[in-house]
TrEMBL record:
Gene3D superfamilies: NADH Oxidase. The keyword Nucleotidyltransferase does not apply. Pfam families: Nitroreductase. Belongs to the nitroreductase family. It comes from Fermentimicrarchaeum limneticum. It comes from the Archaea. This is Nitroreductase.
């Protein structure tokens, strides 16, 4: 799929079919996340892949009862790795750059899923301590995003976007 078509095609889907995501596609998604730019090229993030039904049910609870999490074939959880970033960038690395790294990787994974004909939705509303416990997160990592991936069982409605004139300030193009 051409890049701008990927951008036009990406919409949040919260209803997934029962079809599993093929390992080859999941690997391509993870490779895309791995290719994301990061501060100092440190890749100060980790990714946990969750497919287990019991763990997904626990994630529903940790994410304030967002039931659709349990129905997604794959949940990718992106965590910061503050230690990797702080070694070079100190406090700013630990408090900002590692978060940016993890979220950029999430965005790359989401676009890759779209390019592969899969649906996804980004989940950011959750209790990070509870999620960390469910996935046995390593010390000094913090969950910042979940990306649910699967085959859509719905046609998500398009949502309106802001006009560029509302987003762009000072300079005109």
């Amino acid at each position: 799929m051409e890049f701008f078509e990927v951008l036009r095609s990406r919409h949040s889907a919260r209803k997934f079919g029962n079809k599993e995501v093929e390992d080859e596609k999941l690997l391509k998604i993870l490779e895309a996340a791995n290719s994301a730019p990061s501060a100092g090229d440190l890749q100060a993030y980790e990714i946990v892949v969750v497919k287990d039904a019991e763990r997904k049910k626990k994630l529903v609870s940790a994410a304030f009862e967002q039931e659709f999490i349990a129905k997604a074939p794959v949940v990718l959880i992106f965590l910061t790795n503050a230690d990797r970033s702080s070694k070079r960038y100190g406090k700013r690395g630990a408090e900002l750059y590692c978060i940016q790294d993890a979220t950029i990787a999430t965005a790359y994974a989401q676009l890759a899923a779209t390019a592969l004909g899969l649906a996804s939705v980004w989940v950011g509303a959750f209790d990070e301590k509870e999620v960390a416990q469910i996935i046995n997160a390593r010390q000094n990592t913090k969950p910042v995003s979940m990306l649910l991936v699967g085959y859509a069982d719905e046609q998500p409605q398009l949502t309106p976007r802001r006009k560029l004139e509302e987003l762009i300030h000072n300079e005109r193009f």
